[in-house]
Write a structure and sequence with these properties.
The protein has one helix and twelve strands, in the order H-E-E-E-E-E-E-E-E-E-E-E-E. By secondary structure, it is mainly β. It has a single domain, classed as Jelly Rolls, CATH 2.60.120. The longest helix is centred in the N-terminal third of the chain and has 16 residues. The chain is globular and about 40 Å long. The protein starts with a helix and ends with a strand.
């Protein structure tokens, strides 16, 4: 009986810890650039009550390059990327939409980083939350290199 009660309490605590969580997602974009830039944008559309809580991002580049982390802006278009759900037990598609080669202007640069050749930089974005009609963008400078951009977020 004690074991059953302990198991029940642990299960309930686990459920409360997950309360409101819709899913955890990641998206990756790999591109071979030739004197061009790569842009990955994650945005929430209008009319949603879902919030995207960013966990972090990483940027790899085969040649030294600078990249920026940007907020919001005016979104025009982009090619959709497919997110990967990290906790399939929740079985819900992401509400946030990830795009690459994004046409987004009037953003606010919130951070600027430099990646060494054949290097990777990991960025903590855990203080950033997206609400409806908000976006986060990672943009490389124009470079001839292979770049890989990863972004991870949770939706509540």
């Amino acid at each position: 009986m004690r074991r059953l009660l302990t198991l029940f309490i642990v299960s309930v605590i686990g459920l409360f810890g997950q309360a409101g969580l819709l899913g955890t997602y990641t998206v990756e974009r790999e591109a071979s650039l030739s004197a061009s830039a790569e842009v990955l944008t994650l945005r929430l559309g209008s009319g949603t009550n879902v919030r995207a809580h960013l966990d972090g991002a990483s940027v790899y580049a085969s040649a030294a390059t600078e990249f920026t982390v940007e907020r919001d802006g005016t979104f025009a278009s982009g090619s959709a990327l497919t997110e990967n759900e990290l906790n399939p037990d929740f079985d819900s598609a992401a509400t946030a939409v990830a795009t690459h080669t994004t046409s987004i202007s009037s953003t606010t640069v919130i951070a600027r980083h430099t990646v060494a050749a054949a290097g990777t930089i990991v960025i903590d974005l855990s203080d950033i939350q997206l609400n409806a009609e908000e976006a986060i963008t990672i943009r490389t400078e124009s470079v001839t290199a292979t770049v890989i951009i990863n972004l991870q977020w949770r939706e509540r």
